[in-house]
Structures are given as structure tokens and as C-alpha cells.
Design goal:
Elements: H1 2-13, E1 19-23, H2 29-37, E2 42-45, H3 48-57, E3 63-66, H4 75-78, E4 84-88, H5 91-103, E5 108-115, H6 127-134, H7 137-140, E6 145-153, H8 160-178, E7 192-194, H9 201-206, E8 211-214, H10 216-219
The structure holds pyridoxal-5'-phosphate.
Organism: Aequorivita aurantiaca
Pfam families: Ala_racemase_N (PF01168)
Function: Pyridoxal 5'-phosphate (PLP)-binding protein, which is involved in PLP homeostasis.
Length: 225
């Protein structure tokens, strides 16, 4: 019951332009179904095989988002159904997604993960790395992937000023890329800025986020990551 109420609460309070991804990692299908029955259709998972198992069991009008780090050898398991991949951080990975998307006669939308946190993180790209990738000739040849925006994770801190600074940094990069004629050409597909989680989504939205990834504030605490 709490889950349905939480979904309702988020629907009511999020601004219209902000998309809610319900992060359901580690949670059982019956809890996801409570969110589904409350109207939620976008779910985020961070393990490909767990997402695939849930996809098999659940209604087919759900959009599945892969929000975690992606290993190239597992792309094939999600290529038939994944709707958005949030954490792309290399050309090699994009190429693999393109290959598997082709096999499934699909086009898969992706976000590039940008490093914004102060703390050392293994994942994500620097701005210039992302820029060089986005304007490269090689990327244009990947016909079955579309890069539709950026994703970032702020530092694990309660310091609101620091969180704001990190989100602003990403928003600035996003705007710069979005206004770039090669990166965001006539198709105008570069439109998603995925930032904000349970603890910091309000600050993320204030700083320009249009997609939040909320787990524990909907489903309760997780026992493990
Ligand atoms: C788990 C996770 C979230 C959701 O975290 P909560 O704090 O539970 O809202 C968001 N984004 C990513 C990348 C995650 O791995």
C-alpha cells in the first residue's frame, strides 16, 4: 500500500517536465506490480539479468531503464527490450549496443554518464571525452543507437551547496551540448538530463534535471545494493 501512495505522491509533486524513473533494483516483482498498478510505467534497474527476469514476468507496456554500469558481454540480454541506457561511458560500449540493437531490428536510446562528483568514481566520462565522442565520425556510423542526453551522480553528501554546484556543472555541459549543431542536429534528440535520486532529487530539479531516478523513497530502504 505504501508503494502505491508513494508513487501517487511523486506524481503529484514532480513538475510536469520531469520524468520519474522508479528504481526497483533488488525489489521483488510483487512490489514493482504495486507501483505498476498505481500507474508507474518506467522502472530502473542496475543489473541486466535481474532486469531481464523482471521484464519476462511483468506487463509489456513497461519501459525498462538500465541505470547501472554496463558490461559489454551482457548487452545482448537487454537489447531486445531495454528502452534507455543511462550510464554509457565509452565508444566501445556504444558500438556493442549498436551491434545488438541491429540484431533485434531496434534503435536503442542512450545517455552518456558524466563524472560530476568530487569523490573518486570509477565510472563516467570527463566533459571533453564526451564532447569528442559526440562529434566523432565513428559515432555517426552507429545507426541503431541514439544519444539523447546526459546522466550524472552527485557526491554522497548532505551539503546542499556542493550538490547544487555539481548539478549545475552538469546542466551547463548539457546546455552546451544541446546547443551544439553537430551534437544536436536537426533531429533535436538531445533532450534528457538524468540527475537526482531519493536524497537529492529536489536540488537536482532546481538545477535543471528533467529525469529523476528514485528508489528508496518509493520502495523503502534496500538491504543491499
Ligand atoms: C540505486 C540508484 C538510484 C536510486 O537510489 P535511491 O537513493 O534509492 O533513490 C539512482 N541512480 C542510480 C544510478 C542508482 O544505482
Amino acid at each position: 500500500m505504501m508503494i502505491a501512495e508513494n508513487i501517487q505522491r511523486f506524481k503529484n509533486k514532480l513538475p510536469k517536465h520531469v520524468t520519474l524513473v522508479a528504481v526497483s533494483k533488488t525489489k521483488p516483482v510483487d512490489e514493482l506490480m504495486q507501483a505498476y498498478n498505481a500507474g508507474q510505467r518506467i522502472f530502473g534497474e542496475n543489473k541486466i539479468q535481474e532486469m531481464e527476469a523482471k521484464w519476462q514476468q511483468m506487463p509489456k507496456d513497461i519501459q525498462w531503464h538500465m541505470i547501472g554500469h554496463v558490461q559489454r558481454n551482457k548487452v545482448k540480454f537487454m537489447a531486445p527490450f531495454v528502452s534507455l541506457i543511462h550510464a554509457v561511458d565509452s565508444f566501445k560500449l556504444l558500438k556493442e549496443i549498436d551491434k545488438e540493437a541491429k540484431k533485434n531490428a531496434r534503435t536503442i536510446e542512450c545517455l552518456l554518464q558524466i563524472k560530476i562528483a568530487e569523490e573518486e568514481s570509477k565510472f563516467g566520462m570527463e566533459k571533453m571525452e564526451a564532447y569528442n565522442l559526440l562529434i566523432s565520425e565513428e559515432v555517426k556510423k552507429l545507426t541503431n543507437v541514439k544519444i539523447v542526453g546526459l546522466m550524472g551522480m552527485a557526491s554522497f553528501t548532505e551539503n546542499e551547496e556542493q550538490l547544487s554546484e555539481e548539478f549545475q556543472k552538469l546542466k551547463k555541459i548539457f546546455e552546451e551540448f544541446r546547443n551544439h549543431p553537430i551534437i544536436n542536429g536537426e533531429s533535436n534528440l538531445f533532450k534528457i538530463l538524468s540527475m537526482g535520486m531519493s536524497g537529492d532529487y529536489e536540488i537536482a530539479i532546481k538545477n535543471g534535471s528533467n529525469m529523476v531516478r528514485v528508489g528508496s523513497a518509493i520502495f523503502g530502504e534496500r538491504n543491499y545494493q
